[in-house]
Design goal:
The complex is a heterodimer. Chain A is of the alpha/beta class. Chain A contains 21 helices and ten strands. A six-stranded mixed β-sheet of chain A has the order 6-7-8-3-9-10, sandwiched between helices. In chain A, strands 2-1-4-5 form a four-stranded antiparallel β-sheet, with helices on one face. Chain B folds into four domains: 193 residues, ABC transporter transmembrane region fold; 114 residues; 136 residues, 3-Layer(aba) Sandwich (Rossmann fold); 79 residues, P-loop containing nucleotide triphosphate hydrolases (Rossmann fold), CATH 3.40.50. In chain B, helix 2 packs antiparallel against helix 11, helix 8 packs antiparallel against helix 10 and helix 18 packs parallel to helix 19. Chain B is elongated and about 120 Å long. Classes of the chains: A alpha/beta, B alpha/beta.
């Protein structure tokens, strides 16, 4: 339950509204409990042969009081429930803002689905506590007290007798609720198993067909489905019991009133009107009794959810500005130096980069080549500080990368990542992604157009229905692999940082287009530090220096010609690619 | 086909006779339950309204004249009605929900079974995630329709009818006066439902936007951070979140108005009873008990009216889901079996391709004029660059797809003339990406085939050399395989798939060798296992290992969908053609290791 204390700061933010809400609850209940009294008086006066206008008075009183109480009821929801939605909003904002600060490692180790589940299910459970649970607990409490006071004022003995079933009712609701929630979770778990099985089956459909296992797969699925049915059945048993038990308990209270109350009326110790009022008050008490058990469950579920949320809030971002950060550093020139850098993703895992020593002078173009898994992308991840080096030092302009404000560092590095990620937005917004919003429309247009030219996207854009304003991705048109890569290049070009990193970003582009883009880039890269990573010799052969990375170490280094001379890894890659080209042409 | 998945979010009409008729077919086996439930419904529906009537009798005939034994009788009757209602309601709720779940079970199995029958061509075009949704979530969303929707509509209607009947029995005038608020209630409820429904759609829309924003930006968080866009993205998130909040707050407003309004209508009904009924009592036209009962009835008829409005939503989602489900069930993309299949028993294992042409789409041929013969017991290696058509040869041989032109023969029988299941039983397939299912090791080898005894599994594992690592696992052959074998190494997974192929003891083996490099230890194990596998069977290997190629009886060189060279390793090398180049590219490096 302690975990819910975190919510205090949100409650404080809206304390006036919540307080008002409580006042409205108080007012609404204190007026509505008078309705049965008017009905009582109305009925009792009937025996005294009252006139029609007098009856009309009671009729108006009943309607009037209900109206006043109703206005307060309206205001309760408009204050407390609306506040719960506002707190939900704040909580979700805080959650997202925290998420944005977390480092790449967190996202690589956490399933998107899990994060989504926290953001929807857990926040929702907490919201149910803030809204309904808080509202109904005070509502229930006041209504309960007022009703009891009035019931006692009519007849103490009858009140006590008729109340007997109520604690039982609360306990029933609590245990039924708990049991049903438990069974529900079990059903959900089994549902996931069922889903996973279907997924697995459909993913492996080739093997299933090849081994003619359809039959046994169906039987297997049948069994799982049947188990799921059985689990549902156990919930149905409880579920179906819930409602009958509920009204049986309420009904027994009714019977007590009818019997004892009826006897009292016979013995003239109670009027018929009072009996009616009693029956109506019973109706008032049913909801609080049910709500009591219900609220307890809601609160327990919210506490569990808030605990999970707190755990996420407690995660410290791995990469952030620290006391080491030197805010005097205001710009970046572009010299990159690796000093004895080694890196591994976690303790006990093998090193991905070993003793890298490399100095890339500002303004030069370096290329990195090597087999898959040799550590090329890891190198990039270190320069953009997605990770910090395990050993050694990484310097930019002679400053340790950890002293450079993170914002400045990322401002000045334009990266085309290996895995192209574009947002489902217009092409223009995607390309202009790295530009600041405060820039003028003309400036943005100019930058975007230049980037489009360099990335050779013009012919493609002409073929799109809305040109540059075409929406791409899930809700729009699907781009080909090459088009995606070129858009990603344009995005990095438009950002125009001091350092440009192209991580294997021309792999899906045909060789002709590649040549065009490379020659376009040549002018653009003048004065910038560039790192080009590729599998293809053709992409990198013109670089100032080529680094051959093998097994996390620098194996060879030099210009294209020098490396060919060397007759090592580079030469072998070169020859293979010549062969591939030859094969392609046969 | 292209629009197969585009209608996931569409909400259609609430009632479609054609869909309903088809849905009811699934309920048919359990119609006994439905009939029972409806009869019980009519009974319980009367039990609730009877109680105020009984209290009326208690007040008028016993309490007012001081007859306590008479009162006791009435109390007993009320108690009996309560207990009866509880029992019947339990039975009814159980019966309907049982019937509902039972129907879902049938439907779910039918969809799954249907999916098993569809051809690979269908799976190529359908994202697995969506298909899973059909089997799971779409079926689930029918649950309310089956369990409460159909039957409970009767219940609500009957309760309202019974209340009317009792009220009219007691006092026709007062009944009319009391019921005069009902049109207002019905109108208010439907107006509220309409507003809430529109608003709910709004809430769903904003929630979907929020979720897809989060999904997308969690996947692309590295790009957000690389481009320093945290602040801008946060503002975007906030504005979507704001829309969601406001839509919710709007729905709070509707609820805030509606519930007090219903109370007010109820108060008006009571006021009418007191005013008009009271007047009648004063004039001795009406007894006090009637008044007493009527006040109780006002509480009673609000729920069924509200519930009836609720059913609209249940029907609507039910219709949308069933439409999607039926669309899938109506998809008939099968590889057809011949009507009178030729028997295929005890084959020798000769394979022949005769001028085979094949395209996945239209005329975009990936196999062009392929002809070759493999004699029983021979091993043939297929080599070629990526996209040369190697896997397509496997796909058509197993009849995952039908070829466009030409013939494929096994033991001189055209494979399109035999039962495809009989055909596949002769062939074992080992894929490059090993597919493991959650279960245990032994069932991953036997694939839950009961014909394969445990000894066979053991034997197969032993022959391919998988027994060593399996025996080191804590539960050995009963060790659980999780999430596609996440706890096993690549080499181990391959050995399991080899054992699987061997356990089925096929006449023909198709092996797509894995390209990924594994440590030398397992590499040796695997090479050994492969040679054991190939022994005595007709085998087609998409070869990535030099040793496999060198040991094969024939090498087929595929290039751009055509057979360009065929022969033995050294013959082909001497040719200095495509194979020669492929060898340099892919296999030469392995020479050093072997």
């Amino acid at each position: 339950m302690k975990s819910l204390l975190t919510l205090k700061k949100y409650f404080t933010r809206y304390k006036t509204t919540i307080f008002l809400g409580f006042v409205f609850i108080f007012l609404s209940n204190i007026t509505s409990v008078f309705v049965p009294l008017f009905i009582r008086d109305g009925i009792d006066e009937l025996r005294r042969q009252i006139s029609k206008p007098a009856l009309l008075k009671y009729a108006f009183l009943i309607v009037g009081v209900t109206l006043i109480s109703g206005v307060f009821r309206f205001l309760i929801r408009q204050t407390i429930i609306v506040t719960s939605r506002k707190i939900e909003f704040d909580l979700r904002n805080d959650f997202w803002s925290h998420l944005q600060k977390l480092s790449l490692r967190y996202f690589q180790n956490t399933k998107t689905g899990d994060i989504m589940a926290h953001a929807s299910n857990d926040i929702n459970a907490v919201r149910n506590f803030i809204g309904p649970a808080v509202m109904y607990s005070f509502d229930t409490l006041t209504l309960f007290i007022f009703t009891l006071v009035l019931m006692f004022s009519i007849d103490v003995q009858l009140s006590l007798l008729s109340l007997i079933p109520f604690p039982i009712l609360s306990i029933f609701v609590y245990y039924f609720g708990k049991k049903i929630h438990f069974l529900f979770t079990k059903i959900q778990e089994h549902f996931s198993i069922l889903t996973a099985r279907a997924q697995e089956n459909l993913n492996g459909i080739r093997i299933i067909k090849a081994y003619v296992r359809e039959e046994s797969e169906i039987n297997h699925f049948k069994k799982l489905s049947y188990d799921y049915f059985k689990k549902n059945l156990s919930k149905i048993k409880i579920d179906s019991l819930f409602h009958p038990t509920l009204f049986l308990t309420i009904g027994s209270s009714m019977i007590i009133i009818m019997w004892f109350g009826g006897l009292k009326v016979i013995n003239n110790k109670l009027t018929l009107g009072e009996l009616t009022a009693f029956i109506l008050y019973m109706g008032y008490l049913i909801w609080p009794a049910i709500a009591f058990g219900w609220i307890t469950n809601l609160t327990q579920q919210a506490a569990a959810s808030q605990k999970r949320l707190n755990a996420i809030f407690a995660i410290e971002p791995e990469i952030k500005d620290t006391s080491l950060t030197n805010y005097e550093i205001k710009n970046i020139i572009g010299e990159i130096e690796f000093k004895n850098v080694s890196f591994r993703y976690r303790k006990n895992l093998p090193f991905v980069l070993k003793n890298i020593n490399l100095k890339i002078p500002a303004g030069s173009t370096y290329a990195i080549i090597g087999h898959t898994g040799c550590g090329k992308t890891t190198l990039v991840n270190l320069i953009v500080r997605f990770y910090d080096v395990t050993e050694g030092e990484l310097l930019i302009d002679g400053n340790d990368i950890k002293t450079i404000p993170l914002k400045l560092l990322r401002e000045e590095i334009s990266v085309v990542p290996q895995e192209t990620f574009l947002f489902s937005d217009t092409l223009k917004n995607n390309i202009a992604y790295g530009l600041n919003n405060f820039e003028s429309e003309e400036f943005i247009d100019e930058k975007v157009n230049e980037a489009i030219k360099i990335a050779h996207l013009t012919p493609d854009i002409e073929s799109f229905p809305d040109g540059i304003n075409t929406i791409i991705g899930e809700r729009g048109i699907t781009l080909s692999g090459g088009q995606k890569q070129r858009t990603s290049i344009a995005r990095a070009v438009a950002k125009d940082g001091k350092i440009l990193i192209l991580d294997d970003c021309l792999s899906a582009v045909d060789t002709n287009t590649e040549e065009i883009i490379l020659s376009n880039l040549k002018n653009f890269m003048a004065g910038k530090t560039s790192i080009i990573i590729s599998h293809r010799i053709s992409t990198i052969k013109d670089a100032d220096q080529i680094i051959v990375l093998d097994n996390g170490m620098i194996a060879e280094q030099g210009t294209h010609e020098e490396l060919i001379e060397l007759n090592g890894i580079y030469t072998r890659i070169y020859q293979k690619q010549l062969l591939e080209k030859e094969l392609e042409e046969i | 086909m292209s629009d197969f998945f585009q209608d996931d979010e569409v909400i259609g009409k609430a009632y479609d006779a054609r869909l309903m008729k088809r849905l009811l077919k699934y309920v048919k086996p359990y119609r006994g339950y439905i009939v029972l439930a409806i009869i019980l419904n009519i009974l319980t529906a009367a039990l609730e309204p009877v109680r105020p009537y009984l209290t009326k009798i208690a007040v008028d005939e016993y309490i007012s004249i001081g007859d306590s034994s008479g009162l006791l009788q009435i109390i007993a009757l009320i108690l009996i009605s309560l207990v009866l209602q509880a029992i019947i309601e339990y039975a009814m709720r159980f019966a309907t929900q049982y019937m509902g779940q039972r129907t879902l079970l049938d439907l779910r199995i039918e969809i799954f079974t249907h999916l098993q029958k569809l051809s690979l061509k269908f799976f190529d075009k359908s994202p697995v995630g969506r298909l899973v949704t059909r089997v799971t979530n779409d079926v689930e969303s029918l649950s309310e329709l089956f369990s409460s929707g159909i039957v409970m509509i009767f219940s609500d209607i009957f309760i309202i009818i019974w209340i009317f009947v009792f009220m009219i029995l007691m006092s026709f005038d007062l009944a009319i006066v009391t019921m005069s608020v009902i049109p207002v209630l019905v109108y208010a409820t439907f107006l509220f439902r309409k507003k809430v429904r529109a608003n709910y759609r709004d809430v769903r829309k904003h929630l979907a936007r929020l979720n897809s924003y989060m999904q997308e930006h969690i996947s692309g968080m590295s790009v957000v951070q690389l481009f320093n866009k945290e602040k801008v993205e946060f503002e975007k998130f906030k504005s979507i979140n704001e829309d969601y909040r406001d839509a919710n707050i709007k729905s709070v407003f509707y609820h805030a108005i509606f519930y007090p309004f219903v109370e007010l209508i109820s108060a008006i009904a009571v006021a009418l009873i007191i005013w008009y009924g009271g007047g009648e009592v004063v004039q001795k036209n009406l007894s006090l008990g009637v008044l007493f009962a009527f006040i109780q009835y006002t509480e009673m008829f609000f729920r069924p009216v509200r519930d009836l409005a609720e059913k609209y939503n249940i029907l609507q989602t039910g219709m949308a889901s069933s439409e999607r489900i039926f669309k899938l069930l109506d998809t008939k993309m099968f590889v057809n079996n011949p009507e009178n299949p030729e028997p295929l028993k005890e084959i020798k294992g000769k394979i022949e391709f005769r001028n085979v042409w094949f395209a996945y789409n239209d005329e975009d041929y990936v196999l062009k004029d392929i002809s070759f013969t493999i004699n029983p017991g021979e091993t043939v290696a297929i080599v070629g660059a990526t996209g040369a058509g190697k896997s397509s040869i496997i796909n058509v041989l197993l009849r995952f797809y039908d070829i466009n032109k030409g013939e494929i023969l096994i033991d001189d029988i055209n494979i399109s003339k035999v039962d495809k299941r009989e055909l596949r039983k002769q062939i074992a397939l080992v894929l490059q990406d090993v597919i493991l299912f959650s279960g245990d090791i032994k069932s991953n080898i036997s694939l839950w085939n009961e014909i394969i005894p445990f000894e066979k599994i053991l034997e197969a594992a032993k022959i391919v050399g998988a027994d060593k690592f399996i025996n080191e696992l804590p539960k050995k052959y009963d060790e659980e395989v999780k999430e596609r074998g996440a706890t096993l190494s690549l080499g181990q997974k391959q050995l399991i798939s080899f054992a699987r192929a061997l356990a089925y003891n096929p006449k023909i083996l198709i092996l797509d060798e894995a390209t990924a490099s594994i440590d030398t230890e397992s590499e040796k194990l695997i090479q050994k296992a492969i040679s054991k596998l190939l022994k005595g069977r007709t085998s087609i290997v998409i070869a990535h290992r030099l040793s496999t190629i060198q040991n094969s009886d024939k090498i087929i060189v595929l290039h751009k969908g055509r057979i360009r060279e065929m022969g033995k390793h050294y013959e082909l090398l001497e040719k200095k053609g495509i194979y020669y180049r492929l060898y340099q590219l892919q296999y030469k490096d392995q020479e050093i290791n072997t």
